[in-house]
Amino acid sequence: MSIFEKIIGREIPANIVYEDELCICFHDISPQAPKHLLMVPKKCIVRLGEAEVEDKETLGHLLLMAQHVAREEGFLDDGFRVVINNGSDGGEEVPHLHLHLLAGRKMTWPPG
Fold first, then answer.
1. Residues acting as catalytic residues
2. DSSP per residue over the chain, as a string?
3. What are the structural domains, with CATH classification, of the chain?
4. Which pLDDT tens digit goes with each residue over 27-86?
5. Under 8 Å between Cβ of 25 and 16
6. What is the pTM of this model?
């Protein structure tokens, strides 16, 4: 069971900013920007590279809820970055798909 499943199941506390039937969004415990939130589907999709056609609704929902959270948290207008890590070379640390929402500073390119 991943740390995200434990957060979803309320076995581990988190600073939750949004939740609905498909996803949960909370503050990252190791922020890489002044605002760093994680948008996590409640269904355990291991990584984007393993998503199936039937995950289409959940994947689209995550992006729309990222927009919603950015608006509610006050960083939609100034801009933000959405990052999905896939696999070890992609920086994936938790084997449960999640979107990083980063904001509160200028983002550079390339990212790293």
1. 98
2. --HHHHHHTTSS---EEEE-SSEEEEE-SS-SSSEEEEEEESS----GGG--GGGHHHHHHHHHHHHHHHHHTT-TTT-EEEE---STTTT--SSS--EEEEESSPPPSS--
3. 3-103 (3.30.428.10)
4. 999 999 999 999 999 999 999 999 999 999 999 999 999 999 999 999 999 999 999 999
5. yes
6. 0.94
